[in-house]
């Protein structure tokens, strides 16, 4: 029974979304940098 | 007051009757126990009751104040829900363990002295172990063994602390203790272990997922929250708890994201939620203590609801791993709905119970100008939504279609989940009754524009992150594996320790045998056997050499003496010489 169960459930990337997440992370990093560095600017 | 039975005794004595009652009467009897305990609680005014004189000390089984009452209420409510959920289980071991466990938790809440506290504390540990063992699998047996070992260690720390404390103060009553001195540290460690404070926490995610379907409901509610109660009673305002609490909120998130077993994910989120409570206790203001107590109250309900809904899936399908389940919303719509209510509550969505309790703790951090603490708590709020709010219902009921076609669990299970879900929503919409029973007056208003919008922002961005991670393929795959935490020290490290001890101690054993049994004993045997001969030769050889006997003649003389002494036929001269040597030795020794 146990042997028949799946060992891995991978999440296949949907085309285009890797670019989206990279853009989001860059924007988020810039935003956070602005927030935290604002008092020193 | 004396005509009332202590609520803990209702559970404990009631448990003893369970095996003798059959059929429907048993179900009614078990359900009536928490009802009777609840009625007793409602009738109890504040004060000290059920005081028993024992060995020059007064044992107080009923210290009733606002703090103990909140925990008493919620422990009896969740016991009713848990018993209802387990009503169809045909295993008296589970019923008895659950009732004793509930009795222990209620007993801890009202114990006014260290002796009775310790008795109920150990009852918690022992009874809960049987709820894990009752699963009757190899994994459950192993987990239960590790669980009880860890709890024995915690219990011993607590006991040692209690003994030193009593020796120092001369009293067995306890209230605020505070950190300072060996006794308080030992008591703190004993409570911290049940309160899953790192690095004493891995027993939880190890043991709870291995418990029975119904046992996990009680486990999720009682042990950790008893520790929260006791910590709030004895160590409020302890700064260390703030940092420990913050660590507890953030650390399990990463493990929960990687975890494949849904009930283990809930175990991690339990640590995360207890972290909020410990942080609240550490802050120690009226707002934070109120937040901690109300959050414990709400958390018991929604965590039990989550364990019940995922337990129902396990009960109906026999599977609980993300890799094996999915797409169950079609065949288990009500269970799915209840799970969503629990998930929304733990995520602190507006109109769900976590929103009106957790925010008090976060606000207390903000009022205390603890910026870093506040930031981590916000991060943890998003994190808990990510794994308990989205991951649990998504992978269980949606996600990929596992092809499993089942049906809803029995009516009693649905009813128990329905009651818990109803309370989760009711408390959120009408928080005033909960606020009115908290230890301090509550002036907190949860539903303000800023709070609702801020919380929704946090949750929506958390949801966005989950979606983007899944769609981009960056989300870690679900894998069947055991993620080791600090339990490495007693899982892997324990084996290493065993190996070293095996080699070291058994090596000493073997060496000792070789030296003392095989070597020294044999040598002594030979020496003692030849001793008269050697002594005789020692005295006689110089005399023979002086008288000119050397070479082969001397060898023959020696052999003759050896043979004579071996057969006991030595000449009188030799015997006299031995006797003389013996007397000289005795003289020298004296």
Span between N and C termini of chain A?
63 Å
Query: Termini distance of chain B?
Result: 80 Å
H and E order of chain B? HHEEHHHHHHHHHHHHHHHHEHHH
Number of helices of chain B: 21
Which shape of chain B, going by the Cα principal axes?
elongated
Radius of gyration of chain A: 19 Å
Low-confidence segments of chain A, given as residue ranges, are none
Instruction: Categorize the overall geometry of chain A.
Output: elongated
Largest sheet of chain A: none
Sketch the major β-sheet of chain B.
2 strands, antiparallel
Instruction: Find the count of extended strands of chain B (DSSP E, 2+ residues).
Output: 3
Structural class of chain B: mainly alpha
Order of helical and strand elements of chain A:
EH
Largest interface, C-beta closer than 8 angstroms, per-chain residues: A-B, 15 and 19 residues
Radius of gyration of chain B: 34 Å
Descriptive overview:
- The complex is a heterodimer of chains A (41) and B (590).
- Chain A is mainly alpha-helical.
- In chain A, 51% of the residues lie in helices and 5% in strands.
- Chain A contains one helix and one strand, in the order βα.
- Chain A is elongated and about 55 Å long.
- With 590 residues, chain B is mainly α.
- Chain B has three domains: 7-235, no CATH class; 239-482, no CATH class; 490-589, no CATH class.
- Chain B has helices spanning 7-17, 23-43, 66-85, 92-110, 114-133, 138-169, 182-194, 203-207, 215-234, 239-258, 262-283, 286-317, 333-346, 354-367, 371-397, 411-429, 432-436, 449-472, 488-546, 551-567, 572-589; strands spanning 47-54, 57-64, 478-479.
- Chain B has a two-stranded antiparallel ribbon.
- In chain B, a hairpin with a 2-residue loop joins strand 1 (47-54) and strand 2 (57-64).
- In chain B, helix 4 (92-110) packs antiparallel against helix 5.
- Chain B is elongated and about 120 Å long.
- Chain B starts with 6 loop residues before the first helix and ends with a helix.
- The mean pLDDT of chain B is 90.
């Amino acid at each position: 029974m146990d042997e028949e169960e799946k060992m891995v459930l991978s999440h296949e990337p949907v085309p285009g979304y890797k670019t989206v997440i990279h853009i989001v992370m860059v924007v988020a990093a810039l935003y956070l940098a602005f927030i935290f560095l604002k008092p020193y600017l | 007051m004396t005509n009332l039975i202590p609520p803990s005794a209702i559970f404990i004595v009631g448990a003893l009757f369970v095996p003798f009652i059959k059929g429907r009467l048993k179900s009614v009897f078990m359900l009536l126990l928490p009802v009777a305990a609840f009625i007793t609680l409602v009738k109890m005014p504040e004060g000290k009751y059920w005081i028993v004189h024992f060995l020059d000390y007064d044992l107080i089984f009923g210290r009733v104040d606002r703090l103990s009452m909140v925990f008493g209420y919620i422990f009896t409510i969740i016991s009713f829900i848990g018993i209802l959920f387990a009503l169809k289980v045909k295993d008296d071991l589970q019923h008895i363990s659950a009732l004793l466990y509930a009795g222990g938790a209620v007993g801890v809440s009202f114990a006014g002295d260290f002796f009775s506290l310790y008795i109920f504390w150990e009852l918690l540990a022992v009874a809960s172990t049987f709820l894990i063992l009752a699963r009757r699998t190899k994994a459950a047996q192993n987990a239960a063994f590790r669980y009880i070992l860890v709890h024995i260690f915690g219990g011993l720390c607590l006991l040692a602390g209690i003994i030193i404390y009593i020796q120092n103060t001369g009293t067995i009553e306890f209230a605020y203790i505070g950190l300072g001195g060996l006794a308080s540290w030992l008591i703190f460690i004993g409570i911290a272990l049940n309160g899953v404070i790192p690095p004493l926490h891995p027993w939880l995610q190890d043991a709870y997922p291995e418990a029975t379907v119904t046992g996990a409901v009680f486990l999720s509610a009682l042990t950790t929250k008893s520790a929260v109660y006791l910590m709030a009673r004895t160590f409020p305002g302890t700064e260390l708890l703030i940092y420990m609490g913050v660590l507890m909120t953030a650390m399990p998130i990463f493990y929960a994201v990687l975890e494949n077993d849904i009930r283990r994910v809930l175990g991690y989120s339990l640590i995360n939620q207890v972290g909020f409570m410990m942080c609240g206790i550490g802050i120690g203001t009226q707002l934070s203590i109120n937040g901690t107590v109300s959050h414990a109250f709400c958390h018991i309900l929604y965590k039990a609801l989550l364990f019940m809904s995922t337990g129902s899936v396990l009960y109906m399908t026999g599977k609980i791993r993300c890799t094996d389940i999915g797409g169950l919303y079609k065949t288990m719509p009500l269970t799915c709905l209840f799970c969503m209510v629990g998930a929304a509550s733990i995520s602190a969505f507006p109109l769900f119970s976590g929103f009106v309790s957790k925010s008090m703790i976060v606000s207390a951090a903000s009022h205390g100008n603890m910026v870093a603490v506040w930031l981590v708590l916000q991060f943890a709020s998003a994190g808990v939504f990510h794994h308990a709010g989205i991951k649990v219902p998504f992978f269980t009921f949606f996600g990929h279609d596992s092809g499993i076609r089942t049906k809803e669990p029995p009516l009693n299970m649905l009813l128990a989940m329905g009651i818990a879900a109803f309370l989760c929503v009711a408390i959120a919409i009408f928080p005033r009754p909960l606020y009115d029973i908290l230890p301090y007056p509550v002036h907190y208003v949860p539903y303000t524009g800023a709070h609702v919008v801020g919380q929704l922002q946090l949750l929506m961005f958390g949801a966005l992150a989950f979606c983007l991670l899944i769609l981009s393929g960056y989300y870690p795959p679900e894998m069947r594996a055991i993620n080791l935490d600090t339990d490495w020290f007693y899982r892997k490290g324990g084996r290493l320790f065993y190996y070293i001890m095996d080699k070291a101690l058994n090596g000493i054993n073997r060496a000792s045998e070789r030296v003392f049994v095989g070597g020294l004993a044999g040598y002594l045997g030979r020496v003692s056997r030849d001793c008269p001969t050697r002594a005789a030769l020692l005295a006689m050889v110089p005399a023979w050499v002086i008288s000119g006997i050397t070479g082969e003649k001397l060898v023959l003389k020696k052999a003759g003496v050896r043979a004579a002494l071996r057969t006991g036929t030595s000449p009188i001269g030799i015997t006299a010489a031995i006797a003389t040597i013996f007397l000289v030795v005795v003289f020298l020794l004296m």
